[in-house]
Amino acid sequence: MKSMIYMLFSILMISACQNNSIESQTGNGVFETISKTEFEGKMKEKTDHILIDVRTPSEYQVGTIGNAKNINWNDANFATEISKLDKTKPTFIFCQRGGRSGKALKKMKGLGFQEVYDLAVGYGGWKN
What we know:
The structure is a single chain. This protein has a single domain (30-127), classed as Oxidized Rhodanese, domain 1 (3-Layer(aba) Sandwich). It is of the alpha/beta class. The chain has helices spanning 2-26, 36-45, 57-62, 78-83, 99-110, 122-127; strands at 30-34, 50-53, 69-70, 91-94, 115-119. It has a 5-stranded parallel β-sheet, with helices on both faces. Helix 5 (99-110) links the parallel strand 4 (91-94) and strand 5.
């Protein structure tokens, strides 16, 4: 009986490991929430990127990062507007503190984007 349980456990473990390998090999994309330092570094490294501010237009008008395009997470047309972007380019997103951009990151993954980086500290942390 013990050997039967051991064999079943081994099969399950091998199967789980194979599934993880397949996922990483198929390239499901890169979706990361990263620090300010990593965000800056990756933007410099990936020069042909898209930068998106998902805050409201009034927040955007007070200030933003570089030449970020404003696509408001709270707008009913967010998915439509974000889908107009080139999904193959590295895309950097941020909001005020990281909450809305975290939700946007998940949404963008579902919409077929390949590489999205979310600024963990948001615009508030960027300024400090």
